[in-house]
């Protein structure tokens, strides 16, 4: 069974497996702080519990619990390694916290899976004059793939090189064809 939990500050829901939902709902501390009722969407796109408490000796303490990290720590400890210690979503949806969707990754894989900040809209694609350059990072060095007439062609070239170098751990751009003619050119 799949549980959908409404977030307090967004129209989105978090997806949880039934065993995870029941475990979290029965946890005494999480129940006390009303964890499930106070999940919010973080600016990073994931679900988070965040509350500020007044300390007995004065001042304040902010408690932050990221849902995907909490689930991984409680249900996937054996999959965590020295290098694979960051939790990510296989399908890219940070609100899909089902066990089958969570994975421990290395920092380099997590970096490759991160959303692009390119102005062109594709990872590894940059506009130079009237053409598009495709580049990929290998051992912290930028490697030139080629120059292309369209951003989509450059993105396809990046995807091919990413699969070749990194397999399933590589970043793959989702190609947005602007016209039938351009779609044919991209293939």
Shape: elongated
Structural class: alpha+beta
Average pLDDT level: 87
As for the number of domains, it is 2
Report on the structure:
The chain has helices at 18-26, 28-32, 67-75, 107-113, 151-166, 180-186; strands spanning 2-6, 13-17, 39-41, 47-54, 60-66, 86-89, 102-105, 125-128, 131-138, 141-148. It has 187 residues and is α+β, with helices and mostly antiparallel strands. The protein has two domains: 2-110; 115-182, 2-Layer Sandwich (GCC-box Binding Domain). A three-stranded antiparallel beta sheet has the order 3-4-5. It has a three-stranded antiparallel beta sheet with strand order 8-9-10, covered by helices on one side. A two-stranded antiparallel ribbon has the order 1-2. The longest helix is centred in the C-terminal third of the chain and has 16 residues, at 151-166. It starts with a strand and ends with a helix. 21% of the residues are buried.
Question: Could you list some keywords that capture this structure?
Answer:
6 helices; 28% helix; 10 strands; GCC-box Binding Domain; alpha+beta; 3-stranded antiparallel beta sheet; single chain
